[in-house]
Amino acid sequence: MLQITPEEGQKRVKTRSLAVLDLGSGTFRLVVYAYQPGRFFHLAEELREAVALGEGLATGRIAPEALERGRKALRAFADFLWAAPVDEVLTLATSAVRDAENGALILQEAEALGLAPKVLSGEEEARLGALAVANALPLGDALVVDQGGGSAQVSLLRGRRFAWGRAMPLGALRLTEGFLPSDPPAKQEVRALEREVERHLKALPLPPGLPLVGLGGNLRAVARLHQKRQGYPLDLLHGHYLPREAVEELYRDLMALSLRARAELPGLQPDRARTLPAALAFLRALLRRTGALGLWVSGVGIREGALFTRLLPPPHLLPDPRAFAVDNLFLRYPFAVEHRERVKALALALFEGLRPLHGYGEEERRLLLEAAHLHDIGMHLGYHEHHKHGAYLVLSEPLYGLTHREQALLALLVRYHRRGNPEPGGFRSLLARGDRKRLKRLAVLLRLAEMLERTRSGRVQGVRVELGEEVRLHLQAEADPWVERVEAEKQAGLFQEAFGLGLRLLWAPTSP
Amino acid sequence: MLQITPEEGQKRVKTRSLAVLDLGSGTFRLVVYAYQPGRFFHLAEELREAVALGEGLATGRIAPEALERGRKALRAFADFLWAAPVDEVLTLATSAVRDAENGALILQEAEALGLAPKVLSGEEEARLGALAVANALPLGDALVVDQGGGSAQVSLLRGRRFAWGRAMPLGALRLTEGFLPSDPPAKQEVRALEREVERHLKALPLPPGLPLVGLGGNLRAVARLHQKRQGYPLDLLHGHYLPREAVEELYRDLMALSLRARAELPGLQPDRARTLPAALAFLRALLRRTGALGLWVSGVGIREGALFTRLLPPPHLLPDPRAFAVDNLFLRYPFAVEHRERVKALALALFEGLRPLHGYGEEERRLLLEAAHLHDIGMHLGYHEHHKHGAYLVLSEPLYGLTHREQALLALLVRYHRRGNPEPGGFRSLLARGDRKRLKRLAVLLRLAEMLERTRSGRVQGVRVELGEEVRLHLQAEADPWVERVEAEKQAGLFQEAFGLGLRLLWAPTSP
User: Are the Cβ atoms of A17 and B1 closer than 8 angstroms?
Assistant: First the structure.
């Protein structure tokens, strides 16, 4: 009998912990990652303080109250790490500390607390953000834009490598302080801000036609507003696509709102309400300047970039981000690795054998194998609804390298790997032409593979597909695999629906 | 740093496996439980075959095709157990095998397959169902009614003990075959069926005024229809309350439907469509006869009863089903046991110290401690949304001894244990008067306790509550617990909302 053995598949590799203290100009964050080099990571802790350290930056000096908030947050973080130690601490300071005349006061405090702070140059900051994007989005070439509170970094990725990056004084807090004193912002104030953004962007050698990626809490806040308006079916920001028209529409609707009215917007964190107009105007100017049709939102940034420098040897790139993400999810819910491998092999044999019928290619093959990889992770949550639990888990975190459409398809395949009629349901709006059929066909293949492993014993050693008036599956086994045959036969109706042919299962005896 | 260590809290007790083959008159099932005696269990496997073995029972003999379906299912089950062995197999046959002249043919097949079948007498069958109910519903005295395919058992529970039980030939399949030949059933056919049910019920010494509990797939199917109609907010059948009017309404609306129309009803399994009228008419007659205002639906029955005979020594009763269920859930997602215990202790101290303000009693105290017990189980699914994941897990399976209202409150407390404004949301329809306030207040207490353990280090050793113009919490610690104090202070607004008073946090130094 198969039990839930959570440690199964977890190699005996020591799990390390890394704390990253990100002393941003808007927000200070302490995050703790647990990781196994090259293999696995997850976020274990996060503390967030909206210090608005960049307050006063327009004057060149951090304001005294902002300094005090920053010191207080540092003391809290140091205190946390004292009480709950980690293997390594990286303390990274960015624009406010870098640019302000009195930024050293924050560094002194951090030093005194034993936090060994490092001030990132604009280029280093850009590099870490770009590294995170290179590992987490399926883009080889891209313009990466990270708008923080004090500065905004623009970088160019070429073939997943950092080509160049520059920090500009275009952070959302700095722009708000420098250009938008009125509440709501006056039109001429917004114009002046936009001219400033354009002036800086003009100075950059921006190659045309590249996908644009946006990082940082300010742009994520815009994306969240967009999702709320749409009734977006996924609770994931990373990988969200924000089309240019949506930004124009948000700009039209929200720029004239007062701070109070903005604070009421559903889904907006209170400290983001203040900087929303500056973020929106920046984003709109960026889209206009680059001519991009939209922006890919990244949920990862310099903190994850820092993690990747520890997780992976130089150049710190995951060989295959998508494969890593799928396996990283599996490793949270490891279950029956040998069964999983057999289901994958059977699904693949069915996919290949039925190729003349479906004509699918690499995209579908990969999705099917990923679904087979993850199909049983929901077992950790309970047997009865494990297909539904598995789908919930697949959608519970960003999967690097998969689009939201692909992630939804993956969740649906897991959802339908044992029962139910495969239908897109609430995810229809994410899907593309042909996906309904694609879902049905791939779900049938996965389900057949699962039923051929119904006893999870490996006694069906392989399957040969014979095409004809009907489809015959010859199950290679030493003795008649009765349960597998009976259970797979129950899928004949769905198979007929998906492929338009009858299905027959036969035992093909193998020698012991 | 705290990592997810899935094996934490799992004592090194051998997990055993028990297969129960339930050869029912409507359905054959193979279930496999994994369990640790006295401590823990979960369902690990289930195969279901709608054999309708009781077909022909009205003639006194199982029909040849039904026999063949039964044999085939037995072979599949035996084959499964051969390929995936378990520690123990219990094969239990009920009405169809017990009552039919040729029932022995099924037993012979089972014997030949090495399944060592046992025919349960009507009383034994009743006893196992009643045992499951005694462990899984918060009722001391109850009438327990288990309608199978061939027979229906009525038992009396007194102080959770089986007082008496009897099997009657009132199974849904038998009634359908014997009384409802027409499609849709004719009125006079239904009358005759009802007279038969009444005749049998009259012969029983039914004490008035007892809660009524319904078991078995046929009654669960009725409950599912009721939930679908209501748009019930939980995906749980066990513990559902089916009021008498709802049964009358379903009877009115569905009795005249044809088999085909019934098969289209959302949420009804195909094989239940056939027996639905008999199940509905039986249930309605039962409610009328007993005068009960409704029926508690049980998701557990003789298979769980059999499990309890292995999980627990005689009399096989869980000392505290509710405590067992909550801990059983925790043990699926064990996380930071020491932290959990400290949060419970802190929550309890806050609850007791604030008693003059809230005036709550045992019910609320228990719920708060259960929420503290489970608050972090969602960490297994990811840090960022672990409060939401935890709520999902709390609602993912029946929790014995909790009503659906209590289970929803528990999920909401877990949901709001770290952020968000505690509101009932979609669960409003399940809640009682005062629950909105109750939720808010208990959520604040839990959240404060969690924040006082923000570093999960135990350095806040205790808390003393001082009531006055404002509420002061004195945190007992050797050094100033900065993070805990700062994080708890952030809850002052919510505290004010919940209790109408300000909140101050102070360090009360203790000697090292």
Answer: yes
pLDDT attached to residue B12: 56
Measured CA to CA, the distance from residue A160 to residue A134 in angstroms comes to 5
Which 8-state DSSP code applies to residue B100?
S
CA angle A336, A337, A343 (to 5 degrees): 90
A64 vs A57: CA distance, rounded Å: 11
Side chain identity at A338, as an amino acid letter? E
Q: What is the pLDDT of residues B160-215, one digit of tens each?
A: 999 999 999 999 999 999 999 999 999 999 999 999 999 999 999 999 899 999 99
Task: Using CA coordinates, name the residue in chain A closest to B80.
Answer: A455
Cα–Cα distances (Å) from A372 to A81, A474, B352, in that order, read 40, 21, 51
Helix (H, G, I), strand (E, B) or coil at A96: helix
**Strand pairing of B16-23 and B88-93?**
parallel
Confidence (pTM): 0.85
DSSP β-bridge partners for residue A508: A476
In angstroms, the Cα distances linking A419 to A448, A493, B395, B490 are: 11, 12, 21, 46
Q: Contacts by B181-185 with C-beta closer than 8 Å and gap 24+?
A: B183/B258, B183/B259, B184/B255, B184/B256, B184/B257, B184/B258, B184/B259, B184/B261, B184/B277, B185/B255, B185/B256, B185/B277
What average pLDDT score do residues B132-156 get? 96
Cβ neighbors of A355 (< 8 A, separation 6 or more) are none
Please name the amino acid found at residue A334. Answer: P
Structure tokens at A104: 């050293």
- Range B92-106 burial, b when 16+ CB lie within 10 A, else e: bbbbbbbbbeebebb
CATH topology of domain A322-457: Hypothetical protein af1432 (1.10.3210)
- Would you call B43 and A382 a contact, using CB atoms and an 8 Å cutoff? yes
Fold match flag (B15-119 vs B322-457):
no
**Of A229, A228, A235, A188, the residue nearest A407 (C-alpha):** A235
Q: Which residue has the tokens 């088999």?
A: B259
Q: Do A42 and B80 touch (CB under 8 A)?
A: no
Other Cβ atoms within 10 Å of A268 Cβ, number? 18
DSSP state of B485: H
A283 pLDDT above the threshold of 60: yes
Q: What is the least distance, in Å, from the CA of B334 to any CA of chain A? A: 11
Kindly calculate the radius of gyration of chain B based on its CA atoms and give it in whole angstroms.
26
Question: Residue A1 is nearest to which of B84, B235, B481, comparing CB atoms?
Answer: B84
Q: Indicate left, alpha or beta for A217 from its phi (over 0: left) and psi (-120 to 50: alpha).
A: alpha
Q: Which fold has domain B15-119?
A: Nucleotidyltransferase; domain 5 (3.30.420)
CATH architecture of A123-303: 2-Layer Sandwich (3.30)
| Residues paired with B157 in a beta bridge | B142, B162
Q: What is the C-alpha R_g of chain A?
A: 26
pLDDT at A10 > cutoff 50: no
A270-300 in b/e form (b: 16+ CB < 10 A) is: ebbbbbbbbbbbbbbbbbbebebebbbbbbb
Count of A–B CB contacts within 8 Å? Answer: 132
Structure confidence by residue, pLDDT tens digits, B9-32: 344 568 899 999 999 998 999 999
Average pLDDT over residues A207-232: 94
| Site of tokens 């990923």 | A370
Question: How many residues does this entry show for chain A?
Answer: 512
Strand A142-147 to A152-158 pairing: antiparallel
Where are the domains positioned within chain B?
15-119, 123-303, 322-457
